[in-house]
Amino acid sequence: MSAMHFLIETLFNLFLMVVLLRFWMQWARVDFYNPLSQAIVKATSFAINPLRKIVPGFGGFDMASLVLAYIVACAKVSVLMMAFGGYWDAAGVALGGLLTALKEAFSLVFWILVIRALLSWVVQGYNPVAAVFEQLTEPLLRPIRKVIPPLGGLDLSIMVVLIGMMFLQRLVMDFLH
């Protein structure tokens, strides 16, 4: 039973992260001609393009991507609720979907920052994946660098953002409990 729970949760989380990544890429104005960007767009277009006809953008944000992320999160909660709880609760799904999307957004940002830090140690020259990660994280890191400049070649901005994110995540979870 736990193996099936793991499989369902993993499949939904992976697609949810891809949808959230597409929203983040559009917000950060990542180069959409990059191969990684094209892969993300192709993986999500089948669901986002029809949704765009119903959900317009707002203030330069792709609201269809956010709506799809919420739908996927609610679907995950619903499937897990019915498969392992034997019931379905609309209020539980609505709140659970919101919390799931929020948790996965924090997770996505965390892993992108960690991967960017690791890539900075090993990638030399231009790499399309590293370029996308850099474009995604620069809007988050730039304000920190204005306050804490790199110290002797050591950039602490990623660590500051990670600690801040973990604090925010725990603060939100404490507030909700």
UniProtKB/TrEMBL annotation:
InterPro entries: CCB3/YggT. Keywords: Membrane, Transmembrane, Transmembrane helix. It comes from Pseudoalteromonas luteoviolacea DSM 6061. Belongs to the YggT family. The chain crosses the membrane at residues 6-25, 108-127, 147-168. It comes from the Bacteria. GO terms for cellular component: membrane. This is Membrane protein.
